[in-house]
Amino acid sequence: xxxxxxxxxxxxxxxxxxxxxxxxxxxxxxxxxxxxxxxxxxxxxxxxxxxxxxxxxxxxxxxxxxxxxxxxxxxxxxxxxxxxxxxxxxxxxxxxxx
Length: 98
Known about the structure:
3 helices
């Protein structure tokens, strides 16, 4: 029973990290197309917070990724890896119930 609760908690944490990656992507688009000013108080604070949370996770992935110029594919790799992990945990949870 505790095992299933831990799997649920890890699943929720994975979902939160995926949402943070999506927020980072949307913010970077808004900054790139000058929809939102990077120096505005709320946008700058949100950008700093999201980058501080994701940098320790993305940095190891970026070290292994080939240099693609201006395009950073590490957030997409992170989302794929986390989704695979979430599916594996879901399968373990189902298997432990039998």
